[in-house]
Amino acid sequence: MATHSDGILVSASGVSTPVETNGHAVEKVVKSLPTDFYTEFLSDAAKARKPSPIRALFPLENKPGVISLLAGKPNDAMFPFTSLSFNITSPTDPSQEQSISLSGKDLSAGLQYGPTGGLPRLLKWFIGLQSLSHGRKLGEGWSLTMGSGSQDLIYKAVNALVNPGDTVLVESPVYAGVIPMFQTLHCEQIEVETDVNGVCSHLLRDILENWPVGKPKPKVLYTVPYGCNPTGMTATLERRKEVLQLARQHNFLILEDDPYFYLYFGKAARPLSYFQLELDEPEVGRVIRFDSFSKILSAGMRLGFASGPKPIIDAMDLHTAMANLQASSLIQAITLALVEEWGYNNFFAHTRAVADFYREKRDVFESALNAHLGGLAEWCTPEAGMFFWFKLLLSPNQTLGVDEGDSEDLIRTKAYEGGVLALPGTVFLPNGRKTAFVRASFSLCTEEQVNEALKRLRAVLLKERGEA
After folding, report:
1. In the prediction, which pLDDT does 100 show?
2. Which of 348, 364, 366 is nearest to 270 (CA)?
3. Are 251 and 449 in contact (CB under 8 A)?
4. Which of 129, 154, 264, 363 is at 20 to 30 A from 258, Cα to Cα?
5. Residue 131: exposed, middle, or buried by beta-carbon count in 10 A (0-12, 13-18, 19+)?
6. Are 240 and 271 in contact (CB under 8 A)?
7. What is the pLDDT of residues 177-227, one digit of tens each?
C-alpha cells in the first residue's frame, strides 16, 4: 500500500518506480506515442476545423513592446465591477470561514476574454494537481484544457474522435448523459458488461477477438471507473490493467470519465487511475481523462478539465474556439483564487472531507435499504460516488437467470404515484432493454427522507408482488 497526496490509501501495485543504474536511481523514461499516431483517430469534423484567425494569435499579444490592434476585446474600464469577495469554509475547520477577494489584474482576467484552454495560472495549478494525483508530468506527450464542466469536454472529445455511423465501445450500464452523444452521431454502441469489479475485460476481449472481418474496430471505449454512475462500481486494479492491455492490442483509446475520483470512501486501497496506470505500458497516450469540480466545489460553476494526448486536446480546443470560445473567465478566476489560497494540501483536506460526507450518506442509505428492502432487492455496496444500483425482486418466486422483470413501469408510474421518484435501470442501457434494476441517489436526502422514500417503495413493491 501507499498513501496518495490526498491521504487516501492507494494500491502500490503498478506504480512506476525509478530504475536502478549502477546503484543509483534514475527517473524512468516515459515514451509517448507520436503525433501522427492520432491522425487515424481524429474525426472528419476535427480534421476539417481550422484555427481561429483571431484566437490563434492571442499568444502574440504577450510579447513585450507589441501594441495589439488584434482582438475586439471590450475595454474593461467600462465593466462596472471593481472587486468581488466571497467567503468559504475552512477545509481543516468547517466552523471557520475564510474571506477571498478578487481585484486588480486577477479580476480583470476574470472579466475579459481569455485563452481557449484556460487561464495560464489555473492551467499550471491543474497540471500540478495531475502530477500529485496521478503521477503525470509534462513532457510525456499530454496537455490539459478546461471546459464548461466535464460534460462539455466529453462531448468535444467524442466529436473529435467519432464519425457519424462509427462503432463505439461503452461500458454497460453506462452514464445516461453520453448515450445521446453517440445516438445523434448514429453510432453503433457495443455494450461491454460491467460487474462489481468494473468492465468485464474477458467479455471485452471476446468482443474484440471475434470482431467481424472487414468491419473497422472501435476507436474508443467510454468508462466511469470510480463510483460509476449508475452502478456505483469502482473498477479493480486488475481489470484496469487488462483493459489497458486490450487498448494497446486492439488500438483503441480510453475515455476515462472520472467525476468521482475524489469521492472515494472504500475500505480497500483506491485503485490507480487509467491515466496513471498507462505509465507502466510500453508507451503512454491512449487515455483521455476527464475531471470535474462539480462534486467537490460547485456543480453550478460548470468547470471541468481534460488531460490527454496533445493532438486530441488541441482538436478539442479548436472545437471550443468555434463553439463557445472558452470556459467562463470569471469562474476560472474565482476557482484560481480559491485553490491558490488553499494550496494542494488544503485542497486534499477538503476532498477528504467531501469523501467522508458521502461515506456517511452511503451508510445511511444502505441501512435504510436493509430495513425496508431486505429480501426484496439485491445490491452491492458502492465504494465511491453517490449512487446505489439495486435489483428489485419483482416476483416472490423469481428464478436466477430467468426473466427477472422490468422496473420501468413500477418506478416511473407506481412508485411516483406512491410518492417516491427514482430512475429505472433501462435508461442506462444504450439498447433500452428491460431490467429490474433501479438507480437511486443518496447525495441530498436526509436520513428521515431516505427511510420514508424506501418505506414507500417497499409498499409499492409488495403490492406488485401480490403480498400487500
Report:
1. 95
2. 348
3. no
4. 363
5. middle
6. yes
7. 999 999 999 999 999 999 999 999 999 999 999 999 999 999 999 999 999
Helix (H, G, I), strand (E, B) or coil at 19: strand
Q: C-alpha cell of 338?
A: 480559491
H or E, element range at 411: none
Task: Give the total residue count for the chain.
Answer: 468
List beta partners, residue 384: 264
Q: Which residues pair with 387 in a beta bridge?
A: 441
d(CA 377, CA 300): 34
How many CA atoms lie less than 13 Å away from 233 in the CB half-sphere?
24
pTM of the full structure: 0.93
Cβ pair 288, 309 in contact under 8 A? yes
Distance CA 227, CA 293 (A): 15
**3-state SS assignment for residue 220:** strand
The amino acid at residue 62 is N
Q: Residue 88: name the closest of 458, 395, 342, 444 by CA.
A: 342
Query: Of all helices (H) and strands (E), which one includes residue 275?
Result: helix 274-277
Nearest to 58 by CA among 102, 128, 115: 115
Burial 85-115 (b: 16+ CB within 10 A, else e): eeebeebeeeeeeeeeebeeebbbbbbbbbb
Positive or negative: CA dihedral 145, 149, 151, 152: negative
Burial class of residue 433 in the structure, from the number of CB atoms within 10 Å of its CB (0-12 exposed, 13-18 middle, 19+ buried): exposed
Separation of first and last alpha carbons in the chain: 50
**How far is CA 17 from its chain centroid?**
27
| 3-state secondary structure at position 171 | strand
**How many CA atoms lie less than 13 Å away from 288 in the CB half-sphere?**
29
Residue 121 and residue 109 in contact, taking contact as beta carbons nearer than 8 Å: no
